[in-house]
Write a structure and sequence with these properties.
By secondary structure, the protein is an all-alpha fold. The protein has 2 domains: 185 residues, no CATH class; 51 residues, no CATH class. It contains 14 helices and no strands.
Length: 255
């Protein structure tokens, strides 16, 4: 495991994520402050900051906790917000299935949105070559390490300085800008652009719903629309089937 840190790809992974690390840290800092100011105890905030390590679900759950929402609403919101990690893990499965269960679980815990995006951009296809696999593991380790350190370190700092940093500073907006940049880079197909547009429009339209239920509405709307559009778009993109030999002969005879 220690050899991953010495691999050249580890440094490449750190370098690739470094430009957005300040945005992640600013977002994590305000999340740490928000956890304390929402009424969580110091122990609860520390455990949530280190064990959960899921920024979007933390930010979705904290206002619900502060509002005294029912537990099922908090859990359902966090579950829906984190559903994307099911897709991430399914995609990454061929990359990590040669590892033992504990290493796979560690990779699952450390992999976040930005590390997943950057990893799959650099390594679009899994491999069975041991040397190439080692390079992929090192890159993902470097990527995930700086992502985790930026978020968790800043969250713990926010928890410690909760009474000195007002939420009105709005430092979390820097994290939103970082995610917007990644979102724009991912909008590489029409279906992705449509899904982002539908989710955004649905979230705004349902903003008046209580307990942040507009988040659930946005996710459901985007998934439903994309499922309806995916099959027609695939059929249009698929090439026409070649004519059978007999049919081609008949057509030639008719000409």
């Amino acid at each position: 495991m220690s050899s991953l840190f010495k691999h050249p790809e580890f440094r490449v992974g750190v370098r690739d994520l470094a430009p957005v690390a300040p945005g992640i840290a600013a977002w994590g800092l305000m999340t740490g402050v928000a956890m304390i100011k929402s009424g969580l105890s110091l122990t609860e905030a520390l455990l949530m900051g280190v064990l959960v390590f899921a920024g979007s679900s933390q930010l979705a759950a904290v206002p619900l906790i502060a509002a005294g929402a029912p537990m099922w609403v908090i859990l359902a919101t966090a579950f829906c917000v984190n559903l994307r990690f099911v897709v991430f893990s399914a995609h990454l499965r061929p990359y990590v299935m040669h590892q033992n269960i504990w290493r796979r679980m560690l990779s699952g815990y450390l992999t976040a949105d930005l590390s997943y995006v950057l990893f799959t951009k650099r390594f679009p296809h899994p491999t069975t070559d041991p040397v190439a696999r080692r390079a992929q593991e090192a890159y993902l380790a470097g990527n995930s390490a700086i992502n985790w350190a930026s978020w968790v370190g800043a969250s713990l700092l926010g928890i410690a300085l909760a009474n000195a940093i007002p939420l009105s500073w709005g430092l979390g907006f820097a994290g939103i800008l970082a995610l917007l940049g990644i979102l724009c880079s991912l909008a590489s197909t029409r279906l992705r652009v449509v899904s982002a547009g539908v989710a955004g429009a649905a979230a705004v339209a349902a903003f008046a719903l209580p307990l942040k239920l507009n988040i659930l509405v946005a996710i459901a709307a985007a998934v439903a629309v994309c499922l309806m559009l995916e099959k027609p778009m695939r059929s249009q993109a698929s090439p026409p089937k070649p004519a059978k030999t007999g049919e081609a002969g008949e057509a030639g005879g008719a000409l």
